[in-house]
User: Fold Elongation factor 4 from Desulforapulum autotrophicum.
Amino acid sequence: IKQKNIRNFSIIAHIDHGKSTLSDRLIQLSGIISDRDFKDQILDSMDIERERGITIKSQTVSLPYTGNDGEEYLLNLIDTPGHVDFSYEVSRALASCEGAFLLVDASQGVEAQTLANIYLAMEHDLAIVPVINKIDLPSAEIEWVKDQIDEDLGLDSETALLVSAKTGVGVANVFEAAVAKIPPPQGDENAPLKALIFDSHYDPYRGIIVHVRVFEGSLAPGEKIAFLSSDSIYKVEEVGIFQIKRRPVDRIRAGQVGYMIAGIKLISDVKCGDTLTHSGNRCKAAMKGFRDPNPVVFSSMYPVASDEYPELTEALEKLKLNDASLVYEKDSSAALGFGYRCGFLGLLHLEVVQERLEREYDLSLILTSPSVRYEITRTDGTIQIIDNPSLYPDPAEIEKTREPFIKASIIVPDRYMGAVMQVSMEHRGVSTNYQYLTSNRIEMKFTLPLAEVVYEFYDRLKSVTQGYGSFDYEVAGYQETDLVKLDFLVNGERVDALSQLVHRDKAVDRAKNACKKLRDEIPRQMFKIAIQGAIGGKIISRETVSAYRKDVTAKCYGGDISRKRKLLEKQKKGKKRMKMVGSVEIPQSAFLSVLKSG
Ligand code: GTP
Assistant:
């Protein structure tokens, strides 16, 4: 295929505006997959994505298309996630594109992440083609959305495509628009190879599969390649393109997006953002690469079974291949043994990583309460950055503490203005500004402590605005705060993995909630168990789990033997998910419940 007949583009949108549905339609129309093998959300290949109905990973698919001019084209669609936690993933995907379709829901209009994503696309100098989706909806307001496209986005709304990804109306025009409006890639096919690694994943049979965008030169099996950052050298076994399945080809050339297999087992050799070249004929300079991810939420992870620590280590390494934004380092806890301190881009990212580790690597994990990064000035003048409660100094040695704040932008219909104000105040937010985008939609700006957003702010916002509130944020520096370390004691013994750093005003509520949850989650044991929340030496909340004989079969009144056996089995299985802390067995679920008791 000729370079001038290749198009690389992605679809960007606010969450739920129909990106995955539109991708599905395009894939179906292209005919690369039979109707029998087709399923909805086909690019969302992970279970978590399908269950939650969201895209987490970006995926590439190469679609063949015969243009109106009779030429054969290869349209590479790079699907991207919509949630604010994954904008790092979006930004990496965009580095491989020349253009983007900006999808706007005809009934919702432009929202916070529509704006955030268009800025990302502009940073990458992409051609942007507006698409108005869901025109089949009775509540579609096409003219209203066109006004927003002109005014809020500064794009020409006359060029906007009108589609319904659901019914298929107008979808075929997307192909022709890709050909006409998105420039073909450039780059000299005969120059030395220069390919950008934008993703990778681990295949148990083939080793590491490296996802690349070739910018210059070309790549074929049998050739010797080098990774610029590590200078390790491999012989290429296979190259190909993504068409839901991997499809091997003879050679991938400048302008193409595809994959390379070279029997790579050493995970540390493959880095996202690194440049790939031929070892004998190297390109002059490395590609620009990607900015480092900026984790904002931290939590420690421990295997429930301490002997699974090596498995956790290996799983994290492999997951990191496929999730370049994950960062982690060794950590240990008196209660839980060895584990890892991990940094995440947000709470959803944390949940996704935990779920992927548990499902894809069959681990059972305990996570500690998520924390942001605090800046502590000690009385001796030294400054310390901490994200781990276990490193919190003696309060007598603290001069002052500062915590990270964010600038949040919230777009809502104006009838929800009061409700949003209320929620924001409950979360220590300060309103800084607002403006009407259209006659009844308003953009409100707040500064909020990041720690509040990490907990439940987003869920609360969604619920008080009945789903109409859209939210985007950026981290915006540190402000002084009044922090305390909240500890929990189980039968008098401090469980370090439960400690958390919280604002003083929230400490009592947090402690009470957490103690209640622990009481509900910790099964009765042969003796009474006291659960206490404390700041320093001072107990601020208390609950008790009364003693009970743990005979689960007692409630089966003799009778049904198989049911009895099932219960015993269940109890045995449950044991594997228990952690002995002192003399008390604490289930994994108890740790998790505290994590969410903001
Ligand atoms: P993320 O992958 O999480 O970013 O969301 P998304 O933008 O991919 O949205 P998705 O394709 O999952 O669509 C969200 C919802 O809108 C789904 O319930 C779709 O069925 C629905 N939807 C998508 N396109 C249309 C359309 O053209 N018309 C109507 N009526 N509904 C649509």
